[in-house]
Amino acid sequence: MAAQRPAAHSTLSLSDEALTEGLVSLRDCLRWAASEFHAHGLHFGHGTASPWDEAVALTLGALHLPWDVDPAVLEARLLPMERARIVALVRSRISDRRPLPYLLGEAFFAGYPFDVDERVLIPRSPIAELIEDGFAAWFGDLPPARVLDLCTGSGCIGIATALHLPTSEVDLADISAEALAVARQNISRHDVGDRVRAVESDLFANLVGRRYDLIVSNPPYVDARDLASMPAEFRHEPALALGAGSDGLDIVRRLLREARAHLSDEGVLIVEVGNSDRHLEAAFPEVPFLWLDFERGGHGVFALTAQQLDAHAASFA
Description:
Blueprint lengths: L15 H7 L3 H14 L11 H12 L17 H16 L4 H5 L1 E4 L2 E4 L11 H6 L3 H4 L6 E5 L5 H9 L4 E6 L2 H13 L6 E5 L11 E6 L6 H5 L21 H9 L4 E10 L4 H7 L6 E2 L9 E5 H6 L1 H4 L1
Parallel strand pairs: 3-4, 3-6, 4-5, 6-7
Antiparallel strand pairs: 1-2, 7-9, 8-9
Helix pairs in contact: 1-4, 2-3, 2-4
């Protein structure tokens, strides 16, 4: 893990009372939070990319303000309790290295808010772009009737798919009962219980006899080397949802072996493997993985059709 830069100019040695008294406007709080985040060398990888972006997300989230709030609100004076909440969140973000979405209890994915806590990964998959586009590259004329979000965590991929594709029925599957409790909260939050169900399952174990037009998965895929060197922020996320063996492919190998039995004949499998993409290509050099490009960044997501899974079944056996 990279050494943190010393916070030589930090004001966190001051008391909460002194900070709350000195920070009057929203602009004051934004500037102060950004300065502290920069001084303490935090890692940003859970929805923001810089100290300023993190400060904006924290202050607006703490005040329950939307991202597109009128800039005139920057000069608004905050109530003492509002300033105290911002100070407490900044202290926790720095001292505990807890990712901001856990502090706020919410993360945005594919344009929608989702409940999150330490029972689930924080949504950040580039698959959001595919959802927003309705998976048009494969289902341009007719949306998939049945979709499976495998290793669902918070349910963000499957629920966002259901919201963007209002005729699709979606199953959310995960081995973690704790994660599924969060997914069910999000099913209720977005009122999609008539089309979305959560199933506790070790991959496909409890999905016997069910077939899907689209299977999407963001499974555990972090290899041992990356897992050992992750910044402190990532250590708040459930280890079960991150690590997957020395090359990060323990779950993905099973998924490739078992997925075809649960796909329709014209179905598509889309899986995120992140930095373990190099391991996957080395393990299956004969398989024509289609690696997808994303306008907003991200990598390591492949697609395979049912026909391709048939053609290379011997490789996955």
